[in-house]
Known about the structure:
By secondary structure, the chain is of the alpha+beta class. Helices cover 40% and strands 15% of the residues.
Amino acid sequence: MSKFCGIYDFDARTPSSEGEDRVRTALDSPGCFNPQTCRQTGLLLGWAGAAESPEGRGLFQSPDGSICLWDGRIDNRKDILDQTGLHTDCSDAELALLGYWKSGADFFRHVIGDWSLCIWDSHRRRIVLASDYAGIRPLYYYCGTQTLYWSSSLADLVRWTSVTELDDRYVAGFLGMGSATGRTPYAGIFPVPAGHALSIGGGGIADQAFWTLPIHEEIRYRNERQYEERLLELFREAVEVRLPPGMPACAELSGGLDSSSVVCMADRLRRENPGRTPELITFSYLQANSPDERFFREVEQVCGVTACHLELSEHRAVGDRMGTLPAYWEPRYASLAQRMSALGSGVLLTGQFGDFIMGNTHDDTDQVTEYLARGQFVSAARSAYAWARAIETPIYPILGRAIREAYFSWVPPIRPEASVGAAPVSSEDSLTGSFRARMADEDRELTAENSIRDAPPGRRSRFRLAAAVLQSRRLQAPEALQHISYAHPYAHRPLVEFMLTIPAHIVVAPDQPRRLMRRAFAGLLPPAVLNRRSKGSYTPAYREAFLPSAAALLKSPGRIQVVERGYVERQSLMSRLEKFTQGLDCNETQLRQILLLEFWLRARMGAPSSSPPLPHRPEMAVS
Length: 623
C-alpha cells in the first residue's frame, strides 16, 4: 500500500523544520518508494508509493493549489471515468479530487475498492480525510486546538504526539468484543470512520457518512439458479480486481472453503489470461493433528500453485515484541512480509469475511423472525420446526425469540448469543462494573449510528454483525503488512451488498451451512473441499502461546496492569487463569484478550499514568 501523512496548522504558521523531519522520516519506511512532499502556508503533506504503485500517481495537485493524497484501488474506474468524462490516463488521485469538486463527499459512495485519501481543499482551507466502506486501508488523525496531524500509519502519530494516556473506551471494546469502534489505544488519536469523510479545519470537524448498510434493500430473483449465477459472477469480479497485473500474487490457503475458493478462482483467471499474473503463491500453516492439511494440499495439486508452508510452532500467536496495537500473529505476519518481498509480490489475498458473508452457521433461526414479520405464519412454523430439528432443541425458544424481535422491536446483542440448543459454557469476563457500563455505551452507540433498529426484523442481527466488523476496521492490514495490498475478495462491496440483501434461506438452510456458496462454486472447488464440513482450529496454537503468560501472572499477581487500572477484577482473573492452565472451561477466547492487553500494556504503555489526558477530538466542534 502507498503511505501518506501530513500536518496542518490552523493559524497558518510556516511548517517547522521539526514537522518536515517528521514527514520525511515517516515516508522513509520499508516498502515505500519515490517519496514526495508538498508545502503551503500552514500545511505540509507527504506521500510515498508502494510496490504495486511506486511511480507517484497517488499525489495530485490542481492549479488552484488543492491536493489529493491517495492510497488504494478503484475497481469501477471505467464507470467513473464514463460518468465524469475525464481522460483515461488520469491518476486515481486526480480522479478522486475532481470527483470531490463535482459532488463533494457524496462522490466517494460511487468509488468501489479498497482506499483511503486526504484532500486539501484550498478554497475552504480544510483537510478532508476519508476511507472506503470497510476501512481496509488504514488512516488515523490527531486534532489538537491548533494543529491537525494525520497518517496512514498509527505508529507515526504515536511518535509525533508522544501520547501515553490510554483510551478507556478502546479497552472496553477490546476486552468485551475484541475490537473497539472509532477508537485506538491512544487518547486523542482516532481512526477515520469507515465509510465516512471528515472535513477538518480551525472551525471544527464535520463528519459525513457517504455509505450505510443496505438495511432496506432487497433482491429477489425468480429462481435459485439466478442467485448462484450472480454470486459466481460477483466473486469472479472480486478476485479479478485484486490480482496485480504483471507481478506474482500471494494468497493465504487454509483448506477451508473461503480461502480455497479465492485460490481456485485466482488460478482460473490467470489461466484464462496468461501473463497478467505470472505466478500464484500460496501460504499455508502447519500444526500437529490439524484436519486442514489434506484439504489445502488438494487445492495445491489441482491448481498447480507455488506452495509455501509455515510451521505455526515457529510463528507464535504472540511474540516477544509488541506493535502499536495489541494484536495476534505479529511474528507470522513479519515472516510473510519478508517472504513476499523476496518473491517480488505486493498483494496478499485472504478468505477473511467469508464465514460471515457466505452463511457459515448452523443456527440461523432469524429466518423464523423474517417470516413472522411478513405475516407468513405457516412458513414461520415450518422454518421453526426445521431449525429445531437441525440444532436439536425445542421449538418454543426459537418461536419466543422470533416473536420478541418481530413484534417488540428487540435488537439482538452485538455478541451473538450461543445457539439455543448449545451446551452452556462459561461467559465470565472478569470485567469490573464500570467497564460493563462502558461496553453497554459502545453497544448503544453502534446500534444508533447504523439505525439497526430500523432494519426489518430477522435481519437486524445480520446487519449488526456486519456493522461490528466494518466499523471496527477488523479487515485492516496488520502493521507488518501495511506496505503491501492486503486484499479480501469477500469484502468486495458489490458482493457484500448482494449477500446482505438476498433472502436468508437462500444463503443458509437447516443442516445446510453455506448452502448458496456450495451450489454456486460446485464447478470451481475440488469435490473434497466443496463437501468439507469440518474446520481446523488455532486454539492449540493460542494455548501454547499464552500458557507461559498465564503461569507468570499466577506466580506474580501483585502488579497486574489491567487490575491496577480498574479494568479487571483480580479474584475473578486469578480463578480463570487457574482453570486455563488446567484446561478447564474459562471463556478462553475473552481471557486471551485480557492476557494480550496485559502484556501489551507492559511493553508499550508502562505503569498507570496519573497525568491528565492530552488534547483530543472533543475539543473541536463536531457536526
